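Recall from the previous lesson that a structure prediction takes nothing but the amino acid sequence as input. Here we apply that procedure to Molybdate ABC transporter substrate-binding protein from Parvularcula marina. The sequence below is the only information supplied.
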Amino acid sequence: MSALAVISTMLVGLLAVAQAEVVRIAVASNFKPAMDELELVFEEQSGHDLLVSAGSTGKLYAQIINGAPYDVFLSADQERPRRLVEVSRAQDRFTYAVGRIVLLDPIAKSAGPDRLEQMSFRRLAIANPELAPYGQAARQVLTTLGLFEALQDRIVLGENIGQTYAFIWTGNAELGFVALSQLDPEVREQTGLVWIPPQESSDPIRQDAVLLRHGGENAAATDFINFLKSEKAKALIRGHGYETE
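The prediction returns the following tokens.
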């Protein structure tokens, strides 16, 4: 290879490094498994790096309001992204996923309304309804069943849906409401282990994304937003148990 060709190759490599940027993403806990897969695909496709922080929607929103330098916010609801747009802290709001709540009962494997009504358990885990939309949905399901008040002394609250899932699998709660997307496909189909409440028992969990004010100055953040809207990304998201638009 000639010296000129070597130099050209080196310059191309240096240019690629110089153009690579870091995108800081705040993502709701329920979406973290899907985000892990999207991260790998986007980084390979774009050459950019994603720095992902997962947590409850409420806590991430509070961090953003208090100046946390995230570029993109993937919420588990629509309300908080809407508020950020209204105060000019974000733009380009859209629904990237629609989630479902499920009752997971790994011990008795008798998930369903009857199991809840019989109250033959000590602890029922749900995400904190004040912080997590999946917790709000769980409260709505229990209210629809007329059981929310009766179960108050048995409910344990996870800070987010990830912690709620951990409560169940570590035995700190015998059963609980988690996101359908947290379960492996073969688990979702097991009668008794999982119960999917009727859609009319809770509001749809429409999850919105926004490009934050910091991200507007980062071309890579815009690239990620465009990727999230792509059919390739939507197919990956559906594979994790969500619906897309």
